[in-house]
Amino acid sequence: xxxxxxxxxxxxxxxxxxxxxxxxxxxxxxxxxxxxxxxxxxxxxxxxxxxxxxxxxxxxxxxxxxxxxxxxxxxxxxxxxxxxxxxxxxxxxxxxxxxxxxxxxxxxxxxxxxxxxxxxxxxxxxxxxxxxxxxxxxxxxxxxxxxxxxxxxxxxxxxxxxxxxxxxxxxxxxxxxxxxxxxxxxxxxxxxxxxxxxxxxxxxxxxxxxxxxxxxxxxxxxxxxxxxxxxxxxxxxxxxxxxxxxxxxxxxxxxxxxxxxxxxxxxxxxxxxxxxxxxxxxxxxxxxxxxxxxxxxxxxxxxxxxxxxxxxxx
Length: 314
Prior knowledge:
The chain is mainly beta. The chain has one domain: Porin, CATH 2.40.160.40. Helix content is 4%, strand content 55%. It has two helices and 19 strands. It has helices at residues 5-8, 304-313, and strands at 38-50, 52-55, 58-61, 68-80, 85-98, 107-109, 111-125, 128-141, 160-171, 174-185, 188-189, 195-196, 200-201, 205-206, 211-221, 225-236, 255-266, 273-286, 292-303. It is elongated, with a radius of gyration of 20 Å. This is Transporter. Residues 1-25 form the signal peptide.
């Protein structure tokens, strides 16, 4: 089965919870792969906003910010090297805005992200099928955007490397998928020579703590339609809380628990065209905005294997 969902909801492995909302997506967290020599390309639009946030564990609003919103257009693609080995690549353009105060919103290209996705095991269990996937990914900043401008910066300027274990079970059209991820982050350089976390640092180098996350999704999966509920949890393995009435900082401890739903519908005609969308809500967090986000995208599959076979037959 050709399926474009593996590119349609691609996730940036960089958590930017108090600046732009996370580029919410789950393709690198699903159990779907593209067929060999199939390319799925397309774009998604995402909109996210919040007017309350957690200062440490204390939930509050800030009249100097009002409502902070993020818009994002992400171009992405997935290519099937084999049926069991895929490459997923994406890069977003992001806009941020606040409705109050004097901070100006930012905009620009953020980070290039890439994942390699390998189906390591497929085993029939009872009447269902279990699949095990191993994934490796990373991201690098594409532009020199300002990281030390939260909550309106478009990213954190940290290079990342991630590893993920994903297990999927499907019984008929019912499925359940669980995954766990560890993300290492490089230190960053900011445009000032001193800053305060839990102590004073007389340097422009900022240590960025690593992150871990887990994700569960379940729902209905068929050839043309996927509908799923999603629950995810992300934690920062270190960092510190925002001080009272202070600005957030790139190395804050940023934790989140989110829930939502996604869908993907593949049209029968024209063949290979898919529409995807979804919504997420932040249930709880630490040093993050309580965001509500939604996204919508269109993707198309190009079957190079079929084109090559047609060319050879002529």
